[in-house]
Here is the input.
Amino acid sequence: MSASRHRLFRAGFAAITALGADRWLSPLARGRGIILTFHHVRPEPPEPFAPNALLSITPAFLDRTLTALREHGFEIVDLDAVPDRLADPAPARPFAVLTFDDGYRDNLVHARPVLARHGAPWTLFVTSDFADQRGRLWWIELERAVARLDRVTLAGGLDCPARNTAEKSAAFEAAYRALRAVPEEILLEEIAGLCRRAGFKPGTVAGELCLTWDELRTLSRDPAVTLGAHTLTHPMLAKHDATIAHREMAESRAQIEAETGRSVHHLSYPVGDPTSAGPRDFALARDLGFETAVTTRPGHLFADHAAHPHALPRVSVNGLHQTDAALASLLSGVPFLAWNRGRRLNVG
Ligand SMILES: [Zn+2]
Here is the structure.
């Protein structure tokens, strides 16, 4: 996401709260519930060059988020409760679900104590390869490679200087945009090449940042924690054939169940935007018997989503906007009126 788009969001959040739109439009915009997306939770301030900073919030901001949910009248519930909540003809209060993607150790170290203090249930979506301490967290590899390199070149033709923070940010944006447009095999190979040129081995980030199966087994015994599937290798499923997509979903669920002894009912589509998870993938998740499957398409949940439990939108708690104004806007649902052009469902 570009810096200018973030500036626009910041201005939008400020305008929404300054106008009071989060209050007067909320009856229209706020749905029955909301599923929040988190990635990293860690106290360290980001480096000057931190293109993935949107994926990281502090424990203090997680605490503010949970407090804001309560202040805005949300009841924090487990993902298991969502189908019934959507089908309820006369819900008393809006609900909120807390989801964490990828299985980062900082969720255990820094998020869990905050969540426990609030008595909040939460769901952790686990990628098998990452728990195996391998696989490719390619967006972090790309960040680390660009941080170390003075020049970023791709076989596809990109050639950008990367000598200072501004150049690195521009080079990351350009490489990210170019690589998201090509087949995933090429994205992975190009980033592996950048890692090697930057002097480190690709495929080592998970061993540093992600929870092991032992840690996940322990976590799975916590009644506040639900483990969900986030595939075997974290592919953009829609870019692969149906056999691969089916195997990624089914076998990741089977592995989490075998490792923890707990049944798994929920799926999160990796990356989760329309280029990564589409109608074919929603149908596969349904046919595999998942109760819900979540995307990263932005939006609140409405009663109509009861008919589309395998294409649920979520609201990302963005590390670049760790403010009360941003929270009030997201919880009001008002930003999504414009974002989804008035469409509440956004499941096509
Ligand atoms: Zn993910």
Remarks:
- The mean pLDDT is 92.
- The longest helix spans residues 242-260.
- The radius of gyration is 20 Å.
